[in-house]
Amino acid sequence: MTGLTYEIVQHDGGWAYKVGDVFSETFRDHDSALAAAKDAAARQSLAGETDGITYQDRDGAWHEEVADGRDRPETEVVDPAAGRG
User: Fold this and answer.
1) Would you kindly state where each structural domain of the chain is located, as residue ranges?
2) Positive or negative torsion for Cα 55, 10, 16, 67
3) What is the pLDDT of residue 2?
4) How would you class 26 by CB atoms within 10 Å of its CB: exposed for 0-12, middle for 13-18, buried for 19 or more?
């Protein structure tokens, strides 16, 4: 299983969470971004149905595969702001 880290960061005049190089929407305050990251991380861990998926990679190539709904990543929320969260 792979792991996902949701990092709380300042972004676009507010706060957001980031997974890899991808930012969430911008939230007005730190606590809202933290709550959204915790919610997203919890939902990411929930099992779902096994289903076919289609996705495009960074090079523009399309791929099809079967995603096992039970194979969920481990998640964590990281808040580098001292004393926050």
Assistant:
1) 3-78
2) positive
3) 66
4) middle
